[in-house]
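REQUEST FORM: STRUCTURE PREDICTION
Request ID: SP-0412
Submitted by: Lab K.M.
Chain count: 1
Length (residues): 397
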Amino acid sequence: MSLTKPFAALLALTLLSLANASLADDEPILLWPDGAPEAMGDEEQDQPKITIHVPDEVPQSSAAVVICPGGGYAVLATDHEGHQIAKWFNRIGVTAIVLRYRHLPYRHPVPLMDVQRAIRYVRSHADEIGVSPDRIGVMGFSAGGHLASTVSTHFDAGDPNAADPIDQVSCRPDFTILGYPVISLTADYAHRGSRGNLLGDADTDELAISLSNETQVTADTPRAFIFHTDEDTGVPPQNAVAYYLALHEHGVGGELHIYQHGPHGAGLGDGDPVLATWRDRLHDWMQTNGFLVEVERAAVSGTVTLNGQPLKWGTITFHPEGDNQPVAWAMVSNGQFSVPAHRGAVVGTNRVVVRNWGSVEPRATIDDVEVVTGPVEATSLSVEVAAGENELVFELN
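STATUS: Completed
RESULT:
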C-alpha cells in the first residue's frame, strides 16, 4: 500500500511526537538503565538521571542544553539551578535537560563520567528528542559550572567500536554556559570545598591542576558565555575571568559579564532588575552565534556610497527572514565594510539597514546618526546572500 505525501508527512510527524513524548515527558531517564559504572549500590543516589524539558508553548529551536546544578559536589541545587533554568530555556524555544549527577560520597571522575554520558545520550537521541546533534550545549552553576567547564576541556569523540551505541558518539559540548562557576582548584581564589569534595583522599597537586580548567583550555574548547557577580564571596569572580582569559588566549570566542551586585547562588536573579538581565544577554549570545536555529552563514563585504560619495562613518546590518536567526553587523569606514563568514549574513534574503554616522570628526555623536533606507524610489533595501563570498555594492541616495 502506498501513502499519499500529505498522509506520509502527517504520519512521520505523529511518530516523531510519540518518540518525543516517550523521551521528553519530564520523567527522569536513567543514563545507564542496567547500572552505572562505579556505582556503590542501586539506591537513588547511585543512579544518574536526566530530565528532559521540551518547549510546548513556543516554536522549538534546534538547540539543547544539558544543565548541571551546583552544590559544591556535596548536594544538588536542582530547583533554582536546574528545573527553573530549564523552564526559562523552554520559553525561548530551547530544549533543556537537567542532569542529576553523582556527588558525595562519589569522587572524580564519576561526576565527569555522568555529564559526558548525558551529552552522548542527547546527541545519540537527537532525532527522537527533536534537536540538532551539533547544537548541544552544557550549562553549569557554581560547582556545576566546574563540571560544565571540565567536560568542555576533557572530552572525546566517542569510541566507534563500543558495544553501546551511546558510547560511540562525541561528548564534546557545542557551546558552554557558566553561571558563577568554580574554575580553578589551585589558585588563591579556588573553592576549597569543591576541591575537597571532588577529590577526597585522591587529592594531589597534579590531579588538581589537571582539573583547574583555566589551564586546560585549547583551541578546540567550545565557545562560552559566562556571568558572575563582583560581590560573590563564595566563589570569587576571578574564576570566571580566568576561564574567559584562557579562551581569549587560545582564540576561542567568549562573552563575560561581571555584575556589580548579587550574592553567590542567585540563579535566575528574579527581582533584581540588573542581574536578571543575564538571561537576555545569553539569549542574544545564542542567537548571534547561530545556536538557536540551523542556518548557513556567508561572508559579506563591499562598498556603501551615499549621494555618490563613500559613506565616511556608519554601520550596516543584515536581517534575515525568520525568527531566532542571527543578524550580521559591521562598521562602514570610508565606504568599506566586511563581515567574516563565522558571523556573516544568513544565506537567503536579508533586509539591509545602513546607518550614517555623519562626517563629524573624529566620530559622530548619537545625534548625528540617521538610518538610510535605500534608494529614493525604494521603501526598503534587501539583498540575496549566496553561500561563500559575497561582494556587494550599495549606492544610496
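NOTES: Confidence is low (pLDDT under 50) at residues 1-22.
Reviewed by: T.R.
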